[in-house]
Write a structure and sequence with these properties.
The protein is of the alpha/beta class. The chain is built from twelve helices and ten strands. The longest helix has 27 residues. It is globular and about 75 Å long. The model has no long low-confidence stretch (mean pLDDT 95). Bound molecules: pyridoxal-5'-phosphate. The site of pyridoxal-5'-phosphate (PLP) has 15 residues, from helix 3.
């Protein structure tokens, strides 16, 4: 069944599954234990930390394993709220995932949050961020690497450099970037948050790359696990699977992205020709090779999703967290897409195993569904 909702979650990658099973059978002891078997698990856990840190390009001691990007974002904002002097503000990109937006709002009053302007594709405007940083009173910045709904890529390398020049801490939510594009260089951001299940790892696992100067950082109180940064017995099998999944995805991330982009773009070309009025959100920006946020010319997105599902194609109406619970997406609103159009958006997100044939089959299914829905709408108008 062609699965086109990889930005919501991914199936467990073969290497991750093997690593998890091996760790569960052979390395189930508590890594903090005082005997040799526990020391072996501890050593393996440190190897996994080194593996992730090497891919990010940062010292291993700065990687703190946790339950994923939501926990990570909450911990970053809680840390900033504790450390930043009263009156100092945080600049936040308005198209962030709700875990960043809500963590920001939970820890800072509205007057201490500055919203970074984005262009019509949702890309943060660097001139505006620079102006905010020049205004003084800015203590930290949060801008994601790639957007979960549109796939639009943010200039995170430039933002990291800008923040370094202004001696302001930078948090990058890399949940959608990691495993799709190379991780190299992300270690240059002060704070990086990640979820393993977005790149073939297990759910409820991930990490936070902490700032070098964050000695006193504590994600949660408890024991001295994770070098004192996060209390609670580590889930070593999940950590082993996380490191294996990232390594497996990284081996594809550099080399295969160009070919995958061609498949997606051929799909978009077919849709543009066959479904007049269909257009792409964030079309003018650099985007992840796997994602297409399609604004369809008619009919509510749930109807498209339902009909595609019946034909065997799983796509989404938006971000996993927003589906069915909220009004139109804040991301699409930030791009200036009116609410009535946002209700006609479907998000298509492929994985490394998605083939060119899958993309072609999805195009054919969308074209057939469009004809069906158009005929249905015409009947309603006649009735
Ligand atoms: N950040 C982004 C960009 C995401 O897409 C997601 C998940 O959809 C998250 C953070 C949260 O990840 P998790 O639910 O695994 O904590």
């Amino acid at each position: 069944m062609p699965y086109f909702d990889h930005n919501a979650t991914t199936p467990l990658a073969p290497d991750a599954r093997a690593a998890w099973l091996r760790a569960t059978e052979e390395s189930w002891q508590n890594p903090s234990g005082p005997y040799r078997d526990a020391a072996r698990v501890r050593a393996r856990l440190e190897q996994a930390r080194e593996q992730v840190a090497a891919l990010l390009g940062c010292p291993a001691g700065l990687v703190v394993f946790n339950s994923g990007a939501t926990e990570g974002a909450n911990a970053v904002f809680a840390h900033w709220a504790r450390l930043l002097p009263a009156g100092v503000r945080v600049a936040v990109n308005p198209t962030e995932h709700p875990c960043v937006l809500e963590a920001a709002r939970a820890h800072f009053p509205a007057e201490r949050l500055a919203w970074i302007e984005v262009d019509g594709d949702g890309v943060a405007r660097l001139e505006h961020l620079e102006a905010l940083l020049h205004s003084g009173r800015m203590g930290a910045v949060s801008v994601m690497a790639a957007n979960n709904e549109t796939g639009v890529v943010q200039p995170w390398r430039e933002i990291a450099a800008l923040c370094r020049r202004h001696r302001v801490e930078y948090h990058c939510d890399a949940a959608q970037w990691l495993g799709k594009l190379p991780a190299a260089g992300l270690g240059g951001a002060d704070w990086v948050t990640a979820s393993a299940h977005k790149f073939g790892g297990p759910k409820g696992a991930g990490w936070i790359k902490i700032a070098a100067q964050a000695d006193g950082f504590r994600a949660q109180a408890g024991g001295e696990q994770e070098h004192g940064h996060r209390g609670g017995t580590e889930d070593y099998p999940a950590i082993a699977a996380t490191a294996a999944a990232l390594a497996e995805a990284e081996s594809a991330a550099g080399a295969r992205a160009a070919g995958r982009t061609r498949w997606r773009d051929r799909f978009l070309g077919e849709i543009a020709t066959a479904i007049p009025g269909a257009r792409l959100a964030g079309a003018g920006a650099e985007r992840l090779w796997n994602t297409a946020s399609l604004i369809l010319p008619h009919s509510a997105n749930q109807r498209w999703v339902g009909k595609l599902d019946k034909r065997g194609f799983q796509v989404s109406t938006g971000s996993a967290c927003a589906t069915g619970r909220e009004g139109p997406s804040h991301v699409l609103a930030a791009l200036g897409i009116p609410a009535d159009e946002a209700r006609r958006v479907i998000r298509i997100s492929a994985g490394w195993k998605t083939t060119g044939k899958d993309w072609q089959a999805l195009a054919a299914a969308l074209i057939a569904v469009e004809a069906e829905l158009r005929a249905g709408e015409a009947d309603v108008i006649r009735a």
